[in-house]
Amino acid sequence: MTTTAPRAVGRPLARIEGPAKVTGTARYAVEYPLEDVAYAWVVQSPVPRGTLTSVVVDPTAEADDVLAVLWHGNAPRLEQPDDPELAVLQSERISYRGQAVALVVARTLEAARRAAQVVRLEIDVEPHDALLREDHPELYTPEEVDPDSPAVTQTGDVEAAFAAAPVTVDVRYATPALHNNPMEPHATTALWTGGDLVLHDSNQHPPGVAAAVGAVFGLGAERVHVITEHVGGGFGSKGTARPNAVLAAMAARVADRPVRLALTRQAMFSMVGYRTPTLQRIRLAADRDGTLTAIDHQAVEQTSRIFEYAEQTTVVSRHMYASANRRTGHHLVRLDMPTPRWMRAPGEAPGSVGLECAMDELAAELGMDPIELRIRNEPRAEPESGVPFTSRNYLACLREGAQRFGWEGRDPRPRRRREGSWWIGTGVAGATYPSSVMPSVARVRREPDGAVEVSIAAADLGTGARTILTQIAADELRLPPERVRVRIGDSTLPRASVAGGSSGSASWGWAVTGACRELRDSGRDEATFDTTELVERQDTEGKHAYGAHFAEVRVDADSGEVRVSRLFGMYAAGRILNPRTARSQFIGGMTMGMGMALHEEGVLDPAMGEWVNHDFAGYHVPVHADVEWIDAAWLDEADDDLNPMGSKGIGEIGIVGSPAAIVNAVWHATGVRVRDLPVRLDKLLPQI
Amino acid sequence: MKTFAYTPATDVESALAACTEGATFLAGGTNLVDLMKLGVATPDALVDINRLPLRDVTELPGGGLRIGAGVRNSDLAAHPLVRRDCPVLSQALLAGASGQLRNMATTGGNLLQRTRCAYFMDMTKPCNKHAPGSGCPAREGDHRNLAILGASEHCIATHPSDMAVALAALDATVRITGPAGERGVPVTELHRLPGDTPQDDTVLRPGELITAVDLPPLSFARVSAYRKARDRASFAFAVGSVAAAVAAEDGVVTDVRLAFGAVAHRPWRAYAAEQALRGRPATRQEFLAAADAELAAAVCLRDNAYKVPLIRNLVSATLARLTGEGA
C-alpha cells in the first residue's frame, strides 16, 4: 500500500528524537536502568613514560564498596587487538601520561572515584620527550597519511619555480593540540549474558565497536551487541572503540554484574584522541598577475609511541588551487604523548589554516583582492590526479558569498577601520572537504499497520541522521515521514559504515534508497540492499564539497581582545537533504572553527608531558556570547555522480577555512599576522 | 570523592559549633564541590550554611551597605543600591562565571574561592598550595595567567574572583565571626600573599565564618567601573581586570580607587597608582604614569609579561571613560 506524499527530502523536518532529548527521556550510554550495577573508575598514569611495577591498594579506602582493583598484574588476558590502545591493563609499559594503568570497580561511583584517587602506583619512571619541534632529530616520513594517501607528493620543479617567481610567500603557521569535547563523554555500560557481551556505548560506529571489542575478548562480532541509541556528539573521537568500552567489559566480567564507566572531562584529554599540533611551512610562488606557479606545503606532526596516526594536514593543498609545480609532505615524530586521532575534518581543518592564510598573505603581497587571487587560480580538473571534478562550485561560493556578506568596496589595506576602541577588519578563506561514501547495508520491511521499518546500524551523533534517513525512505516509498520508522544505533542491525568523514548520509542513504527501491520493485514485504559493490566500483577522485567563509572581527586596541562580529559560510555541498539540520551542521562547524582560530589550545607542559588545561574552565570553546552573528547558506547543487541522493557530506566543511577567515580578518583589522593559533590577546597586544 | 558528614545549620551559632576540626562550611558549593570531586579538598564534614539568615543587603547607619555573606551573586549584582551607588561591584559580579553559577555563588563563598591554577587543581601534579613542599611547576610550565605582583618562589597563583577586585577598590570590610568572637578585616587584607606558606589563602582562623561584607559610604563610587579582559566573551576568568572609581574636578583627579584582578594571590589594591594620580590632571598620560607606578613592582615570567601592558591599557581606558577625558 502506498499513498502519495509531498517530497520529504529538502524539507526542514525537526529531529525525530528532539522531544525525547529535550524532555530527558532519551537514554545515553550510562543511563539505562539496570539492577545491581557497579561503577568503574580509571586510574591514569601520572607519568608520561616508565614501567608500572606495582599497584598498592589502600585496604581502608572504601573497603566495603570496592569490588576489584584491576591492573596488568591481575587483569584478565586479552587477545592482541589491531588497535594497541585497546590492549588495556595488559602491559607494565607506560607510553603516555593519562594512559589507563588500573581500574577500580565499586558499588558506588563515589567509592570507585575515591579508591582510585588513593591507589598507590609504583613506577620506574623514565625520561620522556613530549615536545613537538620542527628540528626534532627523530622526525620521519610515514608511508601514508590518514586515511590512505601518500605522505609526500611532487609535480613539476618546485625549486625552479620559486627561483623564477617575481612574488613569493614563505611562512610558518602553527596549530595547537585540539581536543574533541563532545557533551556526552566516552561512556559504556557493559553486561555479560551467558558468554555474550552487551554494550551500551557512546560511539560513531556500533558494528565497528562490536567487532573491535569482540576481537579482544575472543568473540565474533555477532556475540557483541552494541546499543548506541543516542550519542551526545563525537567529532571523530568516537569513530572507533575507545579504551572505556574494553575496560567496562573487563570490569563487568570480573565483577560479574553490569558495570558503568564514563570518562571524566579531564580523562578525555588523553584517553580518546586529539588533533595533533601541526607546524606548517607553506611557500607560494606567483606571477605578478596572481597566477600560482608553485605551492610547497610541509607539515610536522606528532604521534604516540604505540600507534601511528598521521594527520593528512597538507592534502588540501594537493587539489584546492591550480599550480604547475607542487610539493606536499608530512613528517612525524613519535613522542611520549597520547595518540592523536580523528577530530572534525582531520587534515583539512589545520591544513587550510596554512594554505588559506598564506593565500591571504600572497594577495596582500600582490596588492590584489584575496577573492580575485583565488578566482585566478581555479583549476580546470583536479590537480595531481587530473580527474575532472564531478562538481566544483567554489568560485560561485566566493562570488555569491561575497555579495551576501557585503565584500564589495572593501579597502584591502589593513588597519584602516577604527570604531571607538575597536579595530575592525574582514577576511575570507576557502573551504573544501572530500565527498566520500562507504559500503553499507540497509533493510526495509513493511509492517502490518502499513508503516515501513528501515533498519541500519548507523549512529546519530545529534546531527539528524535518523531524520534524514526517514526523509529519504519516505520519498522512495512515497510515504509521509510519519509512516517510516527508522531503527539505528544497534550493531545487530544491517551493517553500516562509520558516522565519520562526512560520509554517513551518503553511505547510509544510498543503502536505504537501494533497499526501498528493491522493496517497491519486488512487491515483497522485505528487502535488503548492500552498496559494497557499487561503492567499490566508484572512482574516489574529483569528488569534493566546497565553500567560502567570511568573517568580520573587531580587535580591542586596549586589550587585544578579539570578537567575531559576523561569520558567514556559503557552501556548494550537493543536495541539502534537510535545511534545518544542515544549517546546524554548518554553523556548528563554523563555531568550532572560531574556537580553533581564537580560543582552543591544549597547553602543553613539556616537563609534565601533559596538557595542563584539561577541563572546560581552562580549555576554552566558544560560548554563546562569542557567537554574535553567524549564518550559513548554500547554492542549489546536486551531484548525481556521487550517490542516488545527489548529496555531499556537510559535517566537517564548516570547520575548514573558517579559522583562516578569522585569522585573515584579524590581520585586516590590525595589520598583525599571528601565525600560531589560537590568536589571543597576549599575542596581539605587544603589536597593536 | 571522600565520604563526609553533612550538617545543615540554621543559625550562625549552630554553624560555628558544628564546624569542628576537619569540617568546612558549604555555601553555594560552586567551587568547593568541584575541588572535593578532584580530591583537592577532602573535608570530613560539611556544615551547610545556606539556611543561615545572611541573605540580606541592608543600609548601614551613616551610609554604606552591609551585604550578608549568603547573598547570591545574581541578587547582589541586581540590587538597586549597588547598581546606583557602586556600579563597579555590579559590573564585576556580572562579569564573573555564568548565570547559573551566579545564581548559586554567595558573597562569602566568592571571596573564599580558590585559585584556578591548573597545577593546584590536579592532585597528580606537584603544587605547594595543595601539597606544601612539593614545588611549583607553574614557574617553568603554564603560567600565562598567573601572578606578576606579590608572588613568591613558592607560588604564583592568582585569586580568581572578579567581585573581590571591586570590593578591594571600595574599601570593603569583611565581617568575621568565630570561636574567639567577632572581628572585621579589610577585604584587602583578607587574602594573604603566598610567601613560603602558599597553602594559606587567607587570614581566616580555623572555624571562622564570614557573615557579611560592609561597604563604607564612598560618594564618588557612583562614578566607577569594572573592566575585565578575558580569552572569550563570557564564562572565562579574567586575564587582567581593573576596578576603578574616580572623582575629578576641573580636569583634576581629586580622589581615586583602583584595584587589579588576575595579577596576584589577592585582589590587588593599587595604592601606588592612586597616590600617583591624586591631584594630577585627568589625562591619558597621567593615567598611564599612575599604572606604571604600580606595575614597576611587577615580576614577569616567560609567558605572562603581557599582563603589564594589558593592565596599563585597561587602567588608562577605564579612567578615561569614567572621567570623559582623553578618549
From TrEMBL, chain A:
InterPro entries named among the record's database cross-references: Ald_Oxase/Xan_DH_a/b (IPR000674), Ald_Oxase/Xan_DH_a/b_sf (IPR036856), Ald_Oxase/xanthine_DH-like (IPR016208), AldOxase/xan_DH_MoCoBD1 (IPR008274), AldOxase/xan_DH_MoCoBD2 (IPR046867), AldOxase/xan_DH_Mopterin-bd_sf (IPR037165)
Domain Aldehyde oxidase/xanthine dehydrogenase a/b hammerhead: 23-127
This protein's UniProt keywords: Molybdenum, Oxidoreductase
Origin superkingdom: Bacteria
Database matches in Pfam families: Ald_Xan_dh_C (PF01315), MoCoBD_1 (PF02738), MoCoBD_2 (PF20256)
Alphabetical list of SUPFAM superfamilies matching this protein: CO dehydrogenase molybdoprotein N-domain-like, Molybdenum cofactor-binding domain
GO MF term set: iron ion binding; oxidoreductase activity
Protein name: Xanthine dehydrogenase
Source species taxonomy: Bacteria, Bacillati, Actinomycetota, Actinomycetes, Micromonosporales
Automatic annotation (TrEMBL), chain B:
SMART domains per record: CO_deh_flav_C
Keywords from the UniProt entry: Oxidoreductase
Sequence ranges assigned to domain FAD-binding PCMH-type in this UniProt record: 1-220
InterPro entries attached to this UniProt entry: CO_DH_flav_C, CO_DH_flav_C_dom_sf, Diverse_Substr_Oxidored, FAD-bd_PCMH, FAD-bd_PCMH-like_sf, FAD-bd_PCMH_sub1, FAD-bd_PCMH_sub2, Mopterin_DH_FAD-bd
Entry-linked SUPFAM superfamilies: CO dehydrogenase flavoprotein C-terminal domain-like, FAD-binding/transporter-associated domain-like
Superkingdom of origin organism: Bacteria
MF terms (GO), sorted A to Z: FAD binding; oxidoreductase activity
PANTHER family named among the record's database cross-references: OXIDOREDUCTASE, XANTHINE DEHYDROGENASE SUBUNIT C-RELATED
The name this protein goes by in its record: Molybdopterin dehydrogenase
Lineage of origin: Bacteria, Bacillati, Actinomycetota, Actinomycetes, Micromonosporales
